[in-house]
C-alpha cells in the first residue's frame, strides 16, 4: 500500500515521430500504483471493511469508470486492485478458466500496474478474482477470493424494486423469497434454481452468492478464507468473512441439492468429484469435462490428488470433500 | 476485521495513526484527539472535522470523555453508515494486563479471547453500542505497532 501519487509527467514533443516513439512503452507511466488513484482505493477499502463488519449486507461504493465496460468485471477489478500489494500473487478465473480473454486481460492489468506476480495455480495465489466459480482446491486463511457480481440482490427476482428490497433486508423480511421457493417446488418437485442460489449469511442477511453453481455454495460456509463480492455496475460490495455460517435456503422436506452428474467423469482427468460441464464433440456426442481447468491439469498428472492436498488437515470444501464426502446431496442437508 | 480479536502487526509504529490515515479523506467526517494527526491530514485537505457523535471515523486515546454509545450507528436500511471508532490503548494481546474479552460470531472459529488495556466498563459500553446489530459501531484497538478489530458482528463478553 503506497500513499504517494506520482504526478503525471508534463512533456512537450518536437514532432509527431517523437510522440509515436514515446508510445513504445506500455504507456503506463504516470498511472497510480494499481491503476486506481489513492482516493478511490481508500474509498473501496473503507467499503470492504464495512462489508466485512456486516456479513451479507450490500455496502454502496463509488465504482469509478474502468478501462472496461461495466458488467465485465469492473467491480471485481476495483476490489482486487484495492486489496493487492506488491508482494501478492494474483490469479484470475472466468468460468473456471484462466485462459479466457477477460481473465487474461484483467491479470495483465494487475501485473502491469500493481507489479504483482500472476499465477494460474490456485494454491500459489494470495488474491483470486473469479467470475461464476469458486475453485475446486480448498482455499486457506491467507487467501482472499474476489467474486464479480452482476446482480447484487437475491430479492431482485421476486421484486424489481430496489427500495422495497432494501426495506425487506432492513427488517429481515424474506417471505417473498420463501413463496418463490415454494412455487418452485410446486411446479418442479424440487427447487429449480441453477445459479445465484439465495443464501442466508450469519443468520441475518439474504445474499446473492453471484452466479456460482449450486455446487459451489457449500464452500462459502465456515470457510478459512475471506470472500469479497463486488458489483461495478450496481456499485455495491458485500462480503462473507471466514468461519461464518452460510446456509442455502431450503425446506425441511425439500433439501438443498448440488448438481448431479450421474456416472459422468471428466474426459481429460477422470474426476468424478468436480463440477463438470458438457461439451459436444464433432461427432455430436456429449462429453463431460472439469470446469476448473487448473485443477484438471493437476489431476491429469495425479488422478488421486485431493482437493485439500496442500493443507495440513482435512478441509470441508463443498461436494466431494471429507465431511460431506458420504452425502451424495452435498450441502449440510438443511 | 474479517478475523475479529486476532492481533496483527502494522508496518508503521503508532498503529492508530496508520489506521486513521488509511481510512480518512475528505469524503468522511473525522474526530480525533490527536493534534498531529489533525494537522497532517489537514495539510493534505483530507480532514473534515466533526464531533464524536456525528463523525464517521472517531479516534480516541483510551477511554473517551464522550460515550461510545452516542456515536453514529447507521440506520436499519443502511447500517454501514455506522462509525468506525479507533482506540489507542497501551497494551494489546496476550501480555496485556487488563480486561479479557471473549468473542464469538462471524470470523471467529468457536471462540477467541483478546486482552486489551481498557476498563471493563468501556468494553461493556462498546458491547452495548454494538448490540443493535446490524446497526452499531466497528472498533479498532491500536497499541504501538499492533492492531486488533472488533466489528459489530461479533458478540463481546468481558471475562
From TrEMBL, chain A:
The keyword Phosphoprotein does not apply. It comes from Halarchaeum nitratireducens. GO terms for molecular function: 4 iron, 4 sulfur cluster binding; lyase activity. Keywords: Lyase. It holds the Pfam family PhnJ. This is Carbon-phosphorus lyase complex subunit PhnJ. InterPro entries: PhnJ. GO terms for biological process: organic phosphonate catabolic process. Residues 300-334 are annotated as: Disordered. Residues 300-315 have a biased composition (Basic and acidic residues).
